[in-house]
Write a structure and sequence with these properties.
Radius of gyration: 21 Å
Helix content: 10-25%
CATH architecture of the largest domain: Roll
Structural class: alpha+beta
Distance between the termini: 25 Å
Order of helices and strands: HHEEEEEHHEHEEEEHHE
Number of domains: 2
Largest sheet: 4 strands, antiparallel
Shape: elongated
Strand order of the largest sheet: 1-2-3-4
């Protein structure tokens, strides 16, 4: 996602916006008061497959929860009819985070609250919306850190582990895709199998199934039946490539329809996995974390 300075946004904001002056004014106000939010101008894909170039804000908002400050990553998208219609808002977890679904956030990360449902352009604006989000998320944070398997961290301790992180290339329906993964080696490796996860960026969603659960943990017989005399990391990666070439474990996040209706959940059978955007040899994420 490319940050667009306000001065540039004034020049390149699409003419399809009905109320350009109000849009630019509100974005400038927010940026001046919230240093960790920045304007963006990006292609936004709706559930019907159509796309619009929309202005928005992306970054973090600070919340205070149980005596500590936390930064919640969010994106706020403004449709061309803004401010007559409410923004489309999402929390956007990093791969270390999981969405906490509830009254105010659904499983796709879309933010749901009365302030948005009852939006009145004469009474509502972006600055006030952010204040409402801060208040709501200070009561119940919408994200939590990803929990690893119980047999690993069930005593609450942390360990410094070696591992591998990055992408593996799979070939699916005639195209190459790069799947971001992390492989963690416990101290007993290679006597015990690695702990493996797909690690979606915020634009991606996990496709749960036989080989990946809702937390992103990779599940396959090669790991369950691990024998250190017969198994190794290289062979494991080859197995992953073969399995994920049959059914990719990630897809791109689907956004609300242009009408503003709620995100429609779809079964795995209804989702085309080839909506993964990469067809080149570049990784989905250029940031390769090396710490647990």
């Amino acid at each position: 996602m490319t940050v667009t300075p306000v001065r540039d946004l004034r020049r390149i904001l699409p003419r399809t916006y009905n109320h350009r002056r109000e849009v630019l004014s509100e974005i400038a106000t927010v940026v001046s008061q919230h240093q960790h939010l920045q304007p963006v101008l990006e292609r936004f894909v709706f559930n019907d497959g159509t796309a619009r170039t929309l202005a928005g804000l992306t970054g973090t908002i600070k919340v205070f929860y149980e005596g500590k400050h936390y930064n919640i990553p969010v994106s706020l998208w403004l449709k061309e009819s803004y401010p007559r219609t409410a923004p489309i808002c999402y929390v956007k977890p990093t791969w270390e985070m999981l969405i906490v679904t509830g009254r105010h956030v659904d499983s796709s990360g879309e933010i749901l609250m009365p302030y948005l449902d009852e939006w009145r352009h004469t009474q509502c604006d972006l600055h006030s919306l952010i204040q409402v989000m801060k208040a709501v998320f200070s009561e119940v944070p919408p994200l939590r850190m990803r929990l690893y398997p119980e047999d690993f961290f069930n005593d609450g301790t942390a360990r410094t582990l070696a591992g591998l992180t990055g992408t593996i290339k799979v070939f699916y329906e005639g195209k190459h895709y790069n799947i971001p993964v992390s492989l963690w080696l416990k101290e007993s490796y290679p006597r015990t199998a690695p702990i493996c996860y797909v690690k979606p960026t915020w634009e991606m969603l996990i496709v749960t199934g036989r080989h990946v659960d809702s937390s992103g943990e990779i599940l396959m017989p090669y790991l369950d039946e691990w024998r250190h005399t017969q198994c190794d990391l290289h062979s494991l990666i080859q197995v992953m490539k073969a399995v994920f070439s049959e059914v990719p474990p990630l897809r791109m996040r689907l956004y609300p329809e242009d009408s503003g209706s709620a995100y429609q959940k779809r079964s795995v059978e209804e989702i085309s996995h080839v909506t993964l955007d990469r067809e080149d040899d570049l990784p989905f994420s250029e940031h390769n974390e090396t710490v647990c």
